[in-house]
């Protein structure tokens, strides 16, 4: 398993690429997939607001578009240490390994490491959707 400092640096560097002229909040994310490949993303805002996409989803969609199917660890960086939003949590559960670790970091170097199942209990997952009534 990768150490958090490598993911932190990737996420922090990705945040510098953010397009956030409306909120002025720069978010970066980096992840490692089940196959050991790394991906990163930054938030990209849009004047329609509905077209805005979070850093976590950019990183996840980048991984999936490159043929990956599962993420095992994801790092989310903001200056203040914001957690992933609800949309991002839902996307994470679609592609999460059972023991997905989410790390939330801030500019002070503080980190909170959380199991995804604790971050989003009772998640609506692909197995929920396919369960027979």
Order of helices and strands: HEEHEHEEHH
How many β-strand runs?
5
* Poorly predicted segments: none
Determine the N-to-C terminus distance. Answer: 38 Å
The geometry reads as globular
Residues in β-strands, percent: 15-25%
Count of folded domains: 1
The first-level CATH class is given as Alpha Beta
CATH superfamily (homologous) name: Cytidine Deaminase, domain 2
Structural class assignment: alpha+beta
* Fold-level CATH name: Cytidine Deaminase, domain 2
Cα gyration radius (Å): 14 Å
Characterise this structure.
With 133 residues, the chain is α+β, with helices and mostly antiparallel strands. It has a single domain, classed as Cytidine Deaminase, domain 2 (3-Layer(aba) Sandwich). Helix content is 32%, strand content 25%. It has helices at 4-15, 55-65, 86-95, 116-119, 126-130, and strands at residues 28-33, 38-42, 71-77, 96-105, 111-115. The protein has a five-stranded mixed sheet. The protein starts with a helix and ends with a helix.
């Amino acid at each position: 398993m990768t150490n958090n400092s490598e993911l932190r640096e990737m996420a922090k560097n990705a945040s510098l690429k953010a397009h956030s002229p409306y909120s002025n909040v720069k978010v970066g994310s980096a992840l490692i997939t089940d196959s050991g490949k790394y991906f990163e993303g930054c938030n990209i805002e849009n004047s329609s607001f509905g077209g805005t996409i979070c850093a976590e989803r950019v990183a996840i969609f980048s991984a999936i578009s490159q043929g990956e199917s599962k993420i095992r660890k994801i790092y989310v960086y903001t200056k203040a240490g914001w957690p992933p939003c609800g949309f991002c949590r839902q996307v994470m559960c679609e592609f999460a390994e059972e023991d997905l670790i989410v790390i939330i970091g801030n500019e002070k170097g503080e980190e909170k490491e959380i199991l995804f199942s604790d971050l989003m209990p009772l998640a609506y997952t692909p197995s929920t959707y396919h369960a027979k009534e």
